[in-house]
């Protein structure tokens, strides 16, 4: 049985193909269109999914769209009526788009696929919950989903067992933890649905001096994690911005202009909203545990990408184990939709295999043969050296150890927002200058953005206070005390972004200012090639840790094809490119005539 799951029309459109309960292909539309966070109908990604499985639309048994369009449209209408006459401009802006395409999903699916079979429409948070529980390694689990808003729900919780998934409670729009965080993202001058990572990364540079003000004025947070927002401070229900003048007055000024200098107030605001978010997630976790009695928790939704909150929930919360969907946002809801079609709509048996999740390491996208890679490199007349695997790993490790930055393109592309060792930029975590160099000269983004350490899973306890796997970079952990260096008195007195250039540990390029790290543990089973590269680097240097950041520049999606990789390599300050078995030295390449630097502000 072949089931196609789709998400579209808001942000991060995607497609996923499930065959007899197994996820065989999944990809975001942005990787093909090269338009970051592409929200359009995912025609290219669904076409690739079908081609990957050698199928046509005639072979599909069901198509599942990740939400109920008419229910979402109902929310739009009811929100306008509730706030009328405020919100008229927003309503008149949204209505034509709805009437033209968003409400006619079934017709669009039939047209684009030439498909006449059954189409299912689970609710948005059902799809998120399905994406969290069904691929998880647990036979039974509590489930928590948190995002901006679906049709009506912004938070839901429930319990999964076998092939059953029962949602037991919810919080409804306009009260939304995701929209609250996005409001501060907007206020701090970053782009909503893209810049939330920046707020999380900026938070440790500030102090939580606005926490009480947020609790007193903005959010009424209960002990069980339920909450209500004071809508007098927000504009997202009735306008085209997230915050209003009352919000700006409360926090002593207008929204920060994008690209302007960050102030201590900005950093303090980021820290404050991060603290409030973590507290809300912790309280929700305790309530969900109390209601379900499960020792396990599965999470999805955009807020579940907040790895700092996830890390606190694992360390301080009531659950023995937590599993977070690696594509927790709307893209991952395509996976949930397809699995909903298999387990719920068709009532198929669910079996957990050996305590492993069924996301295949999230390596679910396209891969390319040596021949296909060679054809692309020939197109650009790119000099390269072909190496056997052992020699390739040894040479790459030597380059990294000597301070070179390497683009690493191997195997199947990752599904979700993180590069996990197949579409990655790699560098030496021991270098105090490497964080700033990679951010400014290669990624073309803010220097404060932290990088993830990739480490073989068998070595993680030697460097981090962490006893669990973290294959998807969705948990933070503290660097072990014995790996930290003692700061000088002068260094200890620094504040704000001045703290950025202080080396804090033996692996300073991946140690954030609060001595935390967004951890990726690498398994020899899930990614043997990347695991062996880490092993080769450790043999050479004694250090088992590399910087792993996504293979892209600011404003562009992660690379998908060998051509994407070569163009990104040539347009940035990367020193070497490893693509399949080929090693390319930047110094030997023809003069680059294409674009350089960031495509656009993100």
Automatic annotation (TrEMBL):
Q: Which GO terms describe its molecular function?
A: catalytic activity
- Where the record annotates domain Carbamoyltransferase C-terminal, the positions are 397-586
Superkingdom, natural source: Bacteria
Domain Carbamoyltransferase residue range list: 3-339
Regarding protein family, the annotation reads: Belongs to the NodU/CmcH family.
Protein name, per record:
Carbamoyltransferase
Species of origin reads Geothermobacter hydrogeniphilus
Classification of source organism: Bacteria, Pseudomonadati, Thermodesulfobacteriota, Desulfuromonadia, Desulfuromonadales
